[in-house]
Amino acid sequence: MDFINNTFAVFPALLVAVPVVVQLALGAMALALVLGLLIALARISSIKILRGIATFYLEVIRGTPLLVQLVYIFFVLPSIGVEIEPVPAGILGLGLNYAAYLSEVFRSAILSVEHGQTEAALSLGYTPSKTLWKVVIPQSFVVSMGPIGNYFIAMIKDTALTSVIAVTEILKTANILNSQTFQTTAIYTAAAVLYLIISLPLSRVVVVLERKARSSG
Amino acid sequence: MAETIIEVRDVHKTFISETKRSLWSRLAGRPHVEKRVEVLKGVDLEVHRGETIAILGSSGSGKSTLLRCINKLETIDAGRIYVNGHLIGYEERGGELIAEKASITAQKRTDIGFVFQHFNLFLNKTALGNVMAPLRDVKKLSATEARDIAVPNLEMVGLGDKMENYPSKLSGGQKQRVAIARAFAMEPSVMLFDEPTSALDPELVGEVLAVIKKIAQQGTTMVIVTHEMQFARDIADKIVVMDQGVIVEEGPPSRIFTVPQHPKTRALLSRSGILPS
To answer: Are the beta carbons of A130 and B137 closer than 8 angstroms?
Structure first.
């Protein structure tokens, strides 16, 4: 009984870290969506050099651990004079990383839009770029909603990695509490439960989004 | 003679498909084999203002390709296609065809309505949204102006009560009628129909043909690729029969359907039960 009471007792102390997690996740997701779409467009572009740059970026990001990328941004960049505060560094690291994965979601979604949609737009006088932005991309977003939601949930959990670059998110807050009170079991159980409380409702939302995407069209 | 809207002169078109090679022959660096099919072998056609032309022919005769070349959904290898006196998708320099800027082609395509066999409605938009989209995106009309044009067009095709439906909630015949309204609302100088009823269940063909007939009776210039012989006979001013990439016969329906000259025309008509075999 003590264990459960203790877990409840440390909850409020951890809750103060939730706004930081929200800030990290929303900021990084916004960055990842915009950059991811640009990378996807570069990957399907007819310009060879754009395709090359985008593919190189993708390989570098996917071939190295997110933890290493975060450490690199926070500890290595200052040596060349680029100093970034912990939270912005976390947003940048998570955003750059997830942009690579989201670009693959966008790319396959764009390619999955039927060619007939493109032909219809062209026949009505849309230019190729207008066809892409007004017809193809809006439809690809519907298809991407589910996968984007899943990556968002994964990203929320990955915000825990930013604890190593001095962001006082949930895990870092738990670490600090632990070093003060040594209630290790209660503190880390509460932290784990807190992540669950955030991610479980979100996965329900994703299921609904996926169902919606399937029913349209 | 009324003015010429479409002029097709000696158009040639070859499809090149690469045959699939096994991984082994690719690794061994064997040269790939191109498969060439000449689908248009010198086609000439004139369409005048107000005319309705029906193109008939068995599958693979090149009739759909010809139609798709007219608004440059397909490129051509040789020859010229003029719509309202302008080349579509090309400019001519020193006797050569050179691809023109995509934005100029787009501009010219607003004057050519195209109706597809598989409707190709925008799946993320309602019936009304589909008709309004090009008016807003291409013609840059305001939402109110676009709606004022779209609504009567949807009513004209008999879908005044389905305007808020998404394509997934429409039957094939309804989808095709929306597609016709979408193309027609742009007020093109010619409407091209590429087998507009071939993808429909038999009981839905009639409603679409009725709409096309209505548009023809308004004096719209149109070219229809179709397998509906009786319909073609009803509405066309001129029948064009294609076979293996060439036009084998053309003339008024009264003559084509009663005294066809070419053996291919006779074969086509007897297959569809118009002529006794």
So the answer is: yes
Question: Cβ contacts (< 8 Å) between B107 and chain A: which residues?
Answer: 125
Task: Residue A212: list chain B partners with CB under 8 A.
Answer: none
Q: CA-CA distance, B162 to A145, in Å (whole number)?
A: 28
Instruction: Say if the ipTM goes beyond 0.95.
Output: no
CB-based contact B122 A139, cutoff 8 Å:
yes
pLDDT tens digits along A113-151: 999 999 999 999 999 999 999 999 999 988 898 899 999
A12 secondary structure, DSSP code = H
Burial (CB count <10 Å: 0-12, 13-18, 19+), residue B99 = exposed
| Closest in A122, A124, A216 to B168, CB measured | A216
User: Which of B68, B75, B109, B149 should one mutate to test binding to chain A, selecting the residue with the greatest count of A CBs within 10 A?
Assistant: B109
Quote the minimal CA–CA distance from A125 to chain B in Å. Answer: 4
Give the number of beta-carbon pairs within 8 Å between A and B: 73
Q: Cβ contacts (< 8 Å) between B179 and chain A: which residues?
A: 120
The sign of the CA dihedral A107, A113, A115, A118 is negative
Chain A residue at shortest CA distance from B135: A124
Please give the Cα distance from B254 to B259 (Å, whole number): 8
Residue A157: how many other CB atoms lie within 10 Å = 14
Per-residue tokens: A164:
């190593």
Chain B residues whose beta carbon lies within 8 Å of the beta carbon of residue A124: 109-110, 114, 133-134, 138, 182-183, 186
Cβ-in-10-Å burial (0-12, 13-18, 19+) of A9 comes to middle
Cβ-in-10-Å burial (0-12, 13-18, 19+) of A19 comes to exposed
Give the C-alpha separation, B163 to B129, whole Å. 8
Which of B11, B47, B4 lies closest to B225 in space, CA to CA?
Answer: B47
Chain B positions touching A123 (Cβ under 8 A) are 71, 73, 109, 112-114, 116, 183
Count of positions (residues) in chain A: 217
For B70-116, write each residue's pLDDT tens digit. 999 999 999 999 999 999 989 988 888 898 999 999 999 999 999 99
Question: What's the token pair of residue A151?
Answer: 């990556």
Residue B178 one-letter amino acid: V
